[in-house]
Structure formats: structure tokens, C-alpha cells
Design a protein that fits this description.
CDP-glycerol glycerophosphotransferase activity, alpha/beta, Glycosyltransferase family 2 protein, TagF_C, 28 helices, Rossmann fold, six-stranded parallel β-sheet, Spore Coat Polysaccharide Biosynthesis Protein SpsA, Chain A, 42% helix, Glyco_trans_2-like, nine-stranded mixed β-sheet, 22 strands
Length: 715
């Protein structure tokens, strides 16, 4: 497979070397290579000399020089010269992360897709820092062939440079960039792609770094840019795309292009003398854009309600005048309101937390607030969700299921400030239903009012290491403290019947208070499950090799830091021809990892990593119960078993309970991995016994329970 990477270059002597170098440093395998096609678009600086320097060293670079014709003409020329099956378009200041071509190769070599899209990162030139831009692919991953999703996903992921295209697809549909126009040309290109594409693959990886600097191409407004917008919008209408364009026009009119370029740069950013020049082309543009989208997405403060030239000019002046007033307000805000707000925010947050720490009084304060607010009448249809360290990762599905149920739903954030604590206790005292999924400090030691139910939707599935009240001896201060932590619970939901007794003792609840309705984490995995090969490709793993994931749990004595007690180099040396290795560290730890040749999937979604894994290595983690859904083998590496046993303890005899082989040393583990079966009967049994109520509908079952309790309470 060959990639053709096309780079239009105009006066790019300061940046193009970085662009070329980022391509030359790509991970390369015998299965693919690449060519770099540079179109020197009439540069008047030393761009050509920089490119010719690389040409002397590297045979896979070609340079073509043309008189200045613009970005789109240069891209089209580069595409016509390309000999590769896959095309990429880069700007002369963009950079590729080292594995971009590898990710593209994995997709195109395993799937028949028209193009592949990934995420954009930002490189800030002034401080040489990298960041990942907001995920405009809306967290979609893998194969996408539902055309109703094409425009909602790509309306905000419109750059042609975050994609790789099958040349055959572009040629078949005569897809070219609109020449002679500079602004918004990528809108027409992307919408043309979406009109003809049948199958797309979405990567969960940054495939391009966009350089942020003072000379970005559309940083300074030119009135001729309006002609570009007119030409693009005319051709978009000619496309007659049989897809819903609402998401696109929301982006164009409300969220980005019209607001940024026309309102902020052309109108607000220009002198009043030049505003008259905008009227005629702006009138033409507004005539082209369908009226229903203008009415729906243009905010009132810059909506052009009168389409006449006089009306448009008056609106332009109104926008300019209102922005002047806002500018004056911003100055006042900077010198008066902002310092006052900063002082109040400091008192509300930092000073408040210092007082709590000094006097160790937060629990007492929250309890007093709850008692005060309990004098208020309860709100009958109110449901409150208490965020913990994981945010709404687990409770979010229940909230989504309840959104159309006419209930008053409140989400209580995790921040510790005076105002947040007051709001939090107010809502908790007013709610007949409260949902949490972890230890929840605001309810420590609180006896809730009779009308309220606290539902503990514990995040972990199964029953493995001891927790809650079982972590302490009865009669001890630690046990008394744990009892207070959990005393507010009315019910707890568990993943299977075999876990009931453990949760009874852990939360100090009666049997009838433990309801085996399933587990939300297992729900996520079941409902998002995709083909294992697809999951591997998304993660950048060779699908022709087995993936082994090491997922150790945390140690209280090592948090927040975590030292990796497994050297993968011997594993890589022995098994690199048939296995790939990956890490997934517990989210509450900060791992120190300095090992080459392994994937770090600690920040990837758990369902995706487990979906891809052929085998799991762990120690005492409850991840075994979720992974058991696939029935694939699990290996146990409890390198500190005596210490962990003395510190935590287990509900069953660890050495006889775990559903897989145990290795206490790296040498033993290395030997165990010589042959990895596709299925483990013991792991399948673990799922049946401890996760038997998990069917992908846990959120719905909990929502039904809430609705039933609400109807009983309101009867």
C-alpha cells in the first residue's frame, strides 16, 4: 500500500521543514510506504530551497512548481500527480503524529471504506505545547455506514487534513477542490464526500497537529472572502445532498463561520468606512442560504431580518454599535467586576476549603445544612444524581433513560465550594430519590428524611476484594466510621445474586435492600460491543496478533502514584511475533511508565479496550467481572499477595476463587503465556454466577424501579 501525501506550499519556509520531518518520522513497515508531493505555489521566499534540501536526501519526495493559484488548485494538482492508492492532504504548517500512517494502514488493509477520519490536535507555536482539540467526531468510533449520522458528525469535523481518502473513490465521483476560492472551500469538499460515501471509518486517535500561530491563513479578513463564501454556498445547494443539513447550517450560521468571519472580523473588526462594501455581497449570500436555516440558527443579535440593502446596512451598523457597548462593558468588567468576582470566587472556593481543612468540620456543616433544608417541603417528582470522582460515567445512562419521564432531574457536581455545598444539600433534602455510584461524602453520617430514598448504584460488578464495612473489625472506630458512610442507603443494586450477601455486610443493609438488577459498566460494554477486529484497529493494534492487556488495581499505600512491577521487555522479546501488549492503569492512580514497545490504554474507554483484548492480566481488580462477558482467558499476577491480603482481604479464598492461572513472578507469567486459548470455561462460569443479571438493560430496570417508587410515594 502506498500513501501519497500532498502539501501545497506558499511562502512556508519557516514551517514546512517541520511538516516534512513529521512525515519522514512515521512508523513504517514492509506493508506500506509513502511519497511526499509538494506543490510550490509560486513562493517568493526560500520555501523551494528548503524542499530541495530534503529532495536531495529522500527519493520519495517530488516537487512541482506553479504560478500562484491558491491552496485548492495546488491540492488538485497534487492529487493528479499522486501514484498512491491512499491520499492525504496536509497544509505546509501541519504535522503528523508518528503513528498516523500506521493507523490509516490498519483500516484500509482490513476494511473497504471510502475514507478514514481521525482527531485534530493543536500545536501552539509560541510555547511549543501540544493539546488535543475537542472531539468533534462526537466519540463515534469504528465503522460508520449510517448516512443519517454523516452530517451531524462531520459538520464540526470539516477539515480535509484529518482524513485519508481512497484515490479510487475520489476518482470515481470526480471529487476535486473548488479552485479560485480560499475561505470555506473545505465545506464543499466535505459535503461532497458525504454525499457519495457509503462507508467511513472513525479513529479515536489524533492524526494531525494543526499549528496555531499569528499567520494562520484566515486570521485577517479580506472582503473578497465573501465571494468565496458565496461560491461555496451556491455549489452546496447544487449538490442536492439527500441528507439533513441542519447540523451543518447550525455550525455555519450560529457556532462558527458566519459569526467568526462575517460578524466578528468583517463587521466588528473593520472601520465603518468599509462596511458599505459588505452590503451587496452579504445580500447575495443571504439570498443563497435557505431562509429556514437563517431563522432557526441566527441569534437575534446578528439576525438580518430585513433582506433589503438598506436593511442589511442598518443591521451591520446595529451589530457594530452593540459591540462597542459590549467592549465598554468589558473594560468596566475588567477593572471593577472581575476583581470583585475573583475575590468572591476565592472566598467561595479556596478560603472555604482551607477553613474546612483547618477545623475538619465539613461533615458537621453539611449535616446542619441538610437538617435546615429538611424543614422545606419535599419536591415530589424530583430525582437527584450525585456525581463522584467518575463524574456521570455510570449514572449518565440512568439519567438519559429518565429524561422523558416528566421528572425533575438535578445533577449535583463534584466541586467543593461553599455555594456548591449549599446547593447540593438543598437538592438532597428536597429529593425523594437520590442516586449515587460510589462513596458519597455529602451523605456521610446523615439520616435522610423518611420520604427520601438513596439508591447506591455501585460502579463495580461482582464481588472480589473486601470493601465498605468489611474492611474493618466490628466494634472498632474504623467500622463505626464505615457504618456512618453507608447509613443513608435505602437500596443497593448488584450485578448478580451471588453478590448479595457480600453487599449486605459491606453496606450494613438487609437482604431486601439489595436488588440484583445488573451493573451499569457491564451495560456499557454489552451495548457498545463491536467486532473484536474493529476494536483492535481503532486502538492501533495489529488485528492479526493477539492483544494482552495488563490491568492492575490500585494499592492504597501507593496512591496517587503507581509503580509498574512488570517489565515487558522480556515478554516483547519472546512474543512480539504473535502478541501485542497494553497497559490499563486504574483511573485513580498516576502511573510511572517508562517502557517501550507497549500500548498505554489507560485513557481509552474500558469497554473498547476489553472488547479488543484476547487475554487479561490482572491481580485483584474487579475488571475481571466485566471482562468475563467475553469468556476469554484471565491470568493473575499477584506479585504482592501476602501484603495485599493483610491490608484488604477477599470474600473468597483468592487462590481457589480466581478463574485463571496464577503467576507470582515474571518468569512464571512468561511461561503461562506460551499458549493462550480463545475461551476459558472458568471465566464463563464467573460471568454466569456473579454477573447473571447483566443483560444490557440495567439503566432501564433502575429507571423502572424509580418510576414505581415515585408512583407509590405519590399515591
Amino acid at each position: 500500500m502506498r500513501f501519497s501525501i500532498i502539501i501545497p506550499a506558499y511562502n512556508a519556509q519557516k514551517t514546512i521543514a517541520d511538516t516534512i520531518q513529521s512525515i519522514l518520522e512515521q512508523k513504517v513497515t514492509p506493508e506500506y510506504d509513502f511519497e511526499i508531493i509538494i506543490i510550490n505555489d509560486g513562493s517568493s521566499d526560500d520555501t523551494l530551497k528548503v524542499c530541495e534540501y530534503y529532495l536531495q536526501i529522500h527519493k520519495n519526495i517530488e516537487i512541482y512548481t506553479q504560478t500562484n493559484g491558491g491552496l485548492t488548485k495546488a491540492r488538485n494538482k497534487g492529487a493528479s500527480k499522486a501514484r498512491g492508492e491512499i491520499l492525504l492532504f496536509l497544509d505546509s504548517d501541519d504535522m503528523l503524529p508518528p503513528n498516523t500512517l500506521w493507523h490509516y494502514y490498519l483500516v484500509f488493509s482490513n476494511y473497504e471504506v471510502d475514507f478514514v477520519a481521525g482527531l485534530m490536535g493543536i500545536y501552539y507555536q509560541h510555547n511549543k505545547q501540544y493539546s488535543i482539540e475537542k472531539n468533534y467526531l462526537k466519540s463515534y468510533k469504528g465503522i460508520l455506514n449510517d448516512k443519517s449520522l454523516f452530517i451531524p458528525i462531520f459538520a464540526n469535523a470539516i477539515s480535509p487534513c484529518t482524513k485519508a481518502y481512497k484515490k479510487e473513490f475520489l476518482t470515481k465521483h470526480h471529487l476535486r477542490f473548488l479552485e479560485g476560492h480560499h475561505l470555506c472551500e473545505d465545506h464543499l469538499w466535505t459535503l461532497s464526500l458525504l454525499k457519495h460515501a457509503q462507508t467511513i471509518f472513525l479513529l479515536d486517535e489524533v492524526v494531525l497537529y494543526y499549528r496555531m500561530h499569528t499567520n494562520n491563513s484566515v486570521g485577517n479578513w479580506k472582503n473578497r472572502y465573501l465571494e468565496d463564501m458565496i461560491a461555496v454556498q451556491e455549489d452546496i445547494l447544487k449538490l442536492q445532498i439527500p441528507l439533513d443539513l441542519n447540523s451543518y447550517y447550525e455550525r455555519f450560521l450560529k457556532n462558527f463561520d458566519f459569526k467568526k468571519f462575517i460578524v466578528e472580523q468583517a463587521i466588528i473588526g473593520q472601520d465603518k468606512a468599509k462596511l458599505q462594501e459588505l452590503v451587496e455581497p452579504l445580500q447575495k449570500l443571504l439570498e443563497i442560504i435557505p431562509t429556514q436555516y437563517q431563522q432557526k440558527y441566527m441569534p437575534k443579535w446578528y439576525a438580518f431580518k430585513d433582506p433589503s440593502k438598506n436593511g442589511i446596512y442598518k443591521t451591520i451598523l446595529r451589530i457594530k454599535r452593540n459591540r462597542k457597548l459590549k467592549k465598554t462593558y468589558k473594560k468596566l468588567k475588567k477593572f471593577f467586576i472581575k476583581p470583585l468576582k475573583h475575590l468572591l470566587d476565592t472566598a467561595n472556593g479556596l478560603w472555604y476549603r482551607r477553613l474546612l481543612k483547618k477545623y475538619q468540620c465539613r461533615h458537621k456543616f453539611l449535616k446542619a445544612l441538610y437538617q435546615i433544608f429538611s424543614y422545606l417541603p419535599i419536591t415530589k417528582a424530583k430525582v437527584s444524581f450525585g456525581e463522584c470522582i467518575y463524574g456521570m460515567k455510570y449514572l449518565g445512562d440512568i439519567k438519559e433513560t429518565l429524561k422523558d419521564s416528566n421528572l425533575i432531574i438535578t445533577t449535583l457536581n463534584y466541586r467543593v465550594t461553599l455555594s456548591d455545598d449549599i446547593k447540593r444539600m438543598y437538592h438532597l433534602a428536597k429529593s425523594p430519590i437520590i442516586l449515587i455510584d460510589n462513596y458519597y461524602q455529602p451523605l456521610f453520617g446523615i439520616t435522610t428524611r423518611k420520604e427520601s430514598l438513596v439508591l447506591q448504584c455501585w460502579h463495580a460488578g461482582g464481588l472480589f476484594k473486601k470493601f465498605g464495612c468489611d474492611n474493618a473489625f466490628q466494634g472498632s472506630k474504623a467500622y463505626e466510621y464505615e457504618t456512618k458512610i453507608h447509613q443513608s442507603y435505602s437500596y443497593a443494586f448488584v450485578s448478580g445474586k451471588k453478590a448479595i450477601e457480600g453487599y449486605m455486610s459491606a453496606f450494613n443493609l438487609k437482604r431486601e435492600q439489595i436488588l440484583p438488577l445488573g451493573n451499569i459498566m457491564a451495560d456499557i460494554l454489552i451495548n457498545k460491543q463491536i467486532d473484536q477486529k474493529e476494536a483492535k484497529v481503532i486502538l492501533g493494534v495489529n488485528p492479526h496478533k493477539k492483544l494482552i492487556v495488563y490491568a492492575p488495581t490500585f494499592r492504597d499505600w501507593e496512591r496517587p502514584d503507581f509503580n509498574l512491577h512488570l517489565d515487558f521487555q522480556s515478554f516483547i522479546e519472546k512474543y512480539s511475533d504473535k502478541y501485542e501488549f497494553a497497559l490499563r492503569i486504574h483511573p485513580t492512580t498516576k502511573p510511572t511508565i517508562n517502557q517501550q514497545g507497549i500500548h498505554n490504554f489507560s485513557l481509552k474507554e474500558e469497554w473498547l479496550v476489553l472488547n479488543a483484548a484476547d487475554a487479561l492480566i490482572t491481580d485483584y481488580s474487579s475488571i475481571i467481572f466485566t471482562y468475563a462477558y467475553f469468556g476469554r482467558p484471565i491470568y493473575f499476577y499477584p506479585y504482592d499477595y501476602p501484603k495485599y491480603l493483610s491490608q484488604k482481604g477477599f470474600y473468597e479464598d483468592y487462590l481457589h476463587f480466581v478463574p485463571g492461572d496464577i503467576a507470582f513472578s515474571e518468569e512464571e507469567l512468561l511461561k503461562l503465556l506460551e499458549h493462550i486459548p480463545s475461551i476459558s470455561v472458568k471465566v464463563q462460569q464467573l460471568w454466569q454466577e456473579y454477573m447473571g443479571e447483566c443483560d444490557g438493560n440495567t439503566a432501564e430496570k433502575i429507571a423502572d424501579f424509580i418510576k414505581t417508587r415515585m408512583s407509590i410515594n405519590n399515591a
